[in-house]
Description:
The complex is a heterodimer. Chain A is of the alpha/beta class. Chain A has helices spanning 46-53, 76-86, 102-113, 118-131, 147-158, 177-192, 205-210, and strands at 5-14, 20-30, 35-39, 61-66, 69-70, 87-90, 165-169, 197-201, 213-218, 221-225. Chain A has one domain: Rossmann fold (3-Layer(aba) Sandwich). Helix content of chain A is 35%, strand content 26%. In chain A, helix 3 crosses helix 4 (118-131), helix 3 (102-113) packs parallel to helix 5 and helix 4 (118-131) packs across helix 5 (147-158). The two termini of chain A are 18 Å apart. By secondary structure, chain B is of the alpha+beta class. Chain B has two domains: 2-55 and 274-415, no CATH class; 61-66 and 96-242, no CATH class. Chain B has helices spanning 2-16, 19-57, 74-78, 101-110, 142-148, 162-165, 174-180, 223-229, 249-260, 267-270, 272-310, 312-321, 325-360, 378-405, 408-415, and strands at residues 61-64, 115-128, 131-140, 155-158, 169-173, 187-191, 197-206, 218-222, 238-242, 264-266, 362-365, 368-371. The two termini of chain B are 35 Å apart. The model of chain B has no long low-confidence stretch (mean pLDDT 86). Bound molecules: adenosine-5'-triphosphate (ATP) and magnesium ion. Magnesium ion is lined by residues 46-47, 169 of chain A. Adenosine-5'-triphosphate binds at residues 14, 20, 22, 42-48 of chain A.
Amino acid sequence: MSTLIEAHGLARVLPGDPPVSLVQGIDLAVEPGRFVAVIGPSGCGKSSLLYLLGLLDRPTAGSLMFDGMDTVPMGGDARAALRLARFGFVFQFHFLLPEFTALENILIPIRRLGRLSGGDARTRAMELLRAMELEAQADKTPDRMSGGQRQRVAIARALANDPSLVLGDEPTGNLDSVNSRRVVEIFQALAHEQGRAVICVTHDPDVAAAADRRIHMRDGGIEKVD
Amino acid sequence: MRRVALLLSIAFQHLAKRRRQTIVAVAGVGVGVGFFLAVSALMVGSQDDFVKKLIDAAPHIVVSDEVRSPTPQPAVQAYPGGAVAVHGYKPRTEMRGIKGWQQLVATVNAMPGAVASPSLSGGVTLRVGGHEEALAVIGIDPAVEAHVSNVEENLKAGSLHALETNQGGLIVAEELARRLGVNMGDVVGATSARGGTRSLRIVGLFGRGRSPGGSSGTGYVLLREAQSLTGQPFIINRVGVKIADPYRAETVAKALEARFSYKAESWQERSADFLTLLLTRNIIMYTVVSAILLVASFGIYTVVSNAVADKRRDIAILRSIGFSQADLQGIFVAEGLVLAVIGIILGFGLGLVLMQILGSLEFPVSGRVEHIPLDRRPRQFLLAGGASLACAVFAAWLPARKAARVDPVDILRGAA
Ligand SMILES: Nc1ncnc2c1ncn2[C@@H]1O[C@H](COP(=O)(O)OP(=O)(O)OP(=O)(O)O)[C@@H](O)[C@H]1O
Ligand SMILES: [Mg+2]
């Protein structure tokens, strides 16, 4: 099976005196339909790796291919366009825009991509909310929702433009066990039923156990994969 | 287009959440634009009024029988192109009238919308009883002169036409008539150095302060009358010219002078000092109103730069979603634009109210009620709106650039 995202010798060094190495020597490949967890002790570079894979940060060495495209020489606008159309991010803190309702938060990436007309965009956003069992929250702003609801709105927003790759950074880190399990089930469905690649940084053993594959990190490198 | 609408809607949301600052910034722009309009309406209005008076006070161009440069000397004429130069010659003051004035008048009349009025001016002494007054008398053809100057409008009594219907008709200033102790219909004696003495009848009076050229010592008679009074039959020494576009007077004057070699003075040349004064006044005015608009845009700078500082997290979110740096810059510039547009609309309203108030003020001037001349043309509105928009874009662009430079990874790391 062809890979969706593939890294070779990926490294990120923060310039400075002395320079700080966040990650180095990363080789990995993730195929569509796979749910991969990234685990390891605090400060080992999991988030740093995720920012590189999500084209939010630029590697200082190595190669990073996405869907057959070399992302390293891409300019800022091309990377932004790729994030918009193909990537979905879910962070530990919900990271919704506070002034906008749940529905509007989901509409923002859809409208920015501009492929759907106004009515179709609304229909799509409502479908995503329904899939997350959030229809009743559609017109609420984030401050009037529970933590679990917010995180599911954030997932719905990450899925707004039907991304090929979903990246999570401790998406269950702030949730209780019931809400965590829901998020895990959603992530499994994203990979196994919808054929997306899912890469999820986590401390939660339940999340790690639910993944198809676990990447163990230590000191900025990959220790083992199982 | 959709992208612009989206960026605008995000900008609107940001502003809606900082109402107080938004109101202050909008009010600043509104007051700036309002006063810009009021001040420039006053300044431009009074200037236009003044220039109109300058233009109308006399013909747009006056061709007189003077020459500015000496006529070519025989030595130079004899050797055209030769190394001959004659120094020290002054143009001879030839007060013998304009030769070939008929051709000059025909040339002017052939230009679309232009009229030429030939006249003769000379000095006479008016005598009534023991009183004597000097008078610069101008002989005109009333039918033609009426098209060239606004003499008719400045008459308090009588008419230009009355010069033709009355034998020996004379129009003088009210002040002069009072000094001589005469009134409409009275007869005065007029003597000139070269001619004889004749009796003239007052058939018109210029209103107080409205004599041609601002001098109460100028009077009008029929051209024939002036010619025989001053002993210069068939002579014309002055041609008043009115043209369609008064602002082309300088060009036309140059052309006439080049062709006929008589001095042709445009109204601009005549009033050069005043026009320089107006230019200085304009520079001062636009400096002051630009400063007002610039200060108004400080409010916009404050709002936008605070928004950028507060919204660093949102900036990171939008960037991770896939908004480009240009998008982020656009959002914050749009905030400045929204503030400016609302402020400009309010400012237009304020400006209209101020103009209404200024326009309703009444000033009694020599018995007549005068209103302040105001310029209410859309040009001023466009200028005020355009200038504040430009200021606003610049004021918002400075902090917006910072928004675009926010590195989302820095924010995400800090929050996680
Ligand atoms: N700006 C920075 N300057 C210096 N060191 C930094 C900077 N940012 C991150 N680091 C270091 O880089 C390393 C990797 O950080 P990263 O956030 O990727 O770890 P992590 O595995 O996600 O940790 P956690 O599980 O706590 O989120 C850490 O040791 C951190 O101290
Ligand atoms: Mg982390």
